[in-house]
């Protein structure tokens, strides 16, 4: 395998595992986690509490970002990427082995939340390291196209997760799925982790990290230097990623729960629609990466944020119609916009920070933004749908797009740096 192929493969496989692990939990939370781990006579309450457990990992992600960012900026990208993959994959497999509430009582949801914390902790160092691995090895003029490879792991992981749940629905009856079938996607994470480790253990350090070490010793406390000298970039980067998390989890986790309850679709029907719609996300990522090298990542992200606002305003009309065509059209539109607010991030965020604190800055911004934009999004969206209908959910999504748009306007477009501090 050539050096370039190994680098791009290593950056892609990690985020594929990330999205696979996170989305199998999001899917399970929409379908089965509530009845198995949350004692309640209300299916709506079970769904809300299952979505709340989903949010635990987003709280853990900034913690992981600080820890992995610290070591990524001090000892290098390779070691931290291997460690994040092991922690993330191990936590996912353990969820697949966890007994339910009927067996362990209150201990079961407690352990579930701890494992979700482990997932989030490992993920806190994953995307930032994968993005740096790609862009810090990119040839001139290819930074955004290399930087989009971690994002392409998202549709790969989504298709693997969704496809596996779809196959389980085809071959298992509801009782089999409830009793043991839902565990198989969690256990299968071991295969993806093994492939990821095989690729990553063959890597060398990136040229930009080596050059940074040659110029000066690494910072003793990278997070202190990052906040002292680049707080504006951290703040702008954090809100710049809010839209991509909000639109993804509304179009996937929330839409799946809403579609299989309120709209009356079967699990397999809705998973098939989402499986088709995710291809639009892949198209958006590929197109946005090419455009970001031709123009700038900030300009492409700005267009994606405007599209996200429009998608939010269309949400109640399209998703609420009940029409199979319009529901699919909404999913396709939302995930296409996700491609445009996600694809350029691999080039945009790293360019906000110098190499010596880049792992820390990128990881904190991405994961705190993920906590704001994605951590409670399924829970909030479900609550809004119950209280005020889909109009409130649409405004919530539009607001997330507007928050990222404001951050992009405030940052210096296309330049490493900060907000005007």
From TrEMBL:
<keyword id="KW-1003">Cell membrane</keyword>
<keyword id="KW-0812">Transmembrane</keyword>
<dbReference type="GO" id="GO:0022857">
    <property type="term" value="F:transmembrane transporter activity"/>
</dbReference>
<dbReference type="Pfam" id="PF07690">
    <property type="entry name" value="MFS_1"/>
</dbReference>
<feature type="transmembrane region" description="Helical">
    <location>
        <begin position="50"/>
        <end position="69"/>
    </location>
</feature>
<feature type="transmembrane region" description="Helical">
    <location>
        <begin position="357"/>
        <end position="381"/>
    </location>
</feature>
<keyword id="KW-1133">Transmembrane helix</keyword>
<dbReference type="InterPro" id="IPR036259">
    <property type="entry name" value="MFS_trans_sf"/>
</dbReference>
<feature type="transmembrane region" description="Helical">
    <location>
        <begin position="81"/>
        <end position="102"/>
    </location>
</feature>
<feature type="transmembrane region" description="Helical">
    <location>
        <begin position="298"/>
        <end position="318"/>
    </location>
</feature>
<feature type="transmembrane region" description="Helical">
    <location>
        <begin position="270"/>
        <end position="292"/>
    </location>
</feature>
<dbReference type="InterPro" id="IPR020846">
    <property type="entry name" value="MFS_dom"/>
</dbReference>
<keyword id="KW-0472">Membrane</keyword>
<feature type="transmembrane region" description="Helical">
    <location>
        <begin position="325"/>
        <end position="345"/>
    </location>
</feature>
<keyword id="KW-0813">Transport</keyword>
<feature type="transmembrane region" description="Helical">
    <location>
        <begin position="231"/>
        <end position="258"/>
    </location>
</feature>
<feature type="transmembrane region" description="Helical">
    <location>
        <begin position="184"/>
        <end position="201"/>
    </location>
</feature>
<dbReference type="GO" id="GO:0005886">
    <property type="term" value="C:plasma membrane"/>
</dbReference>
<feature type="domain" description="Major facilitator superfamily (MFS) profile">
    <location>
        <begin position="7"/>
        <end position="416"/>
    </location>
</feature>
<feature type="transmembrane region" description="Helical">
    <location>
        <begin position="393"/>
        <end position="411"/>
    </location>
</feature>
<dbReference type="InterPro" id="IPR011701">
    <property type="entry name" value="MFS"/>
</dbReference>
<feature type="transmembrane region" description="Helical">
    <location>
        <begin position="152"/>
        <end position="172"/>
    </location>
</feature>
<protein>
    <submittedName>
        <fullName>MFS transporter</fullName>
    </submittedName>
</protein>
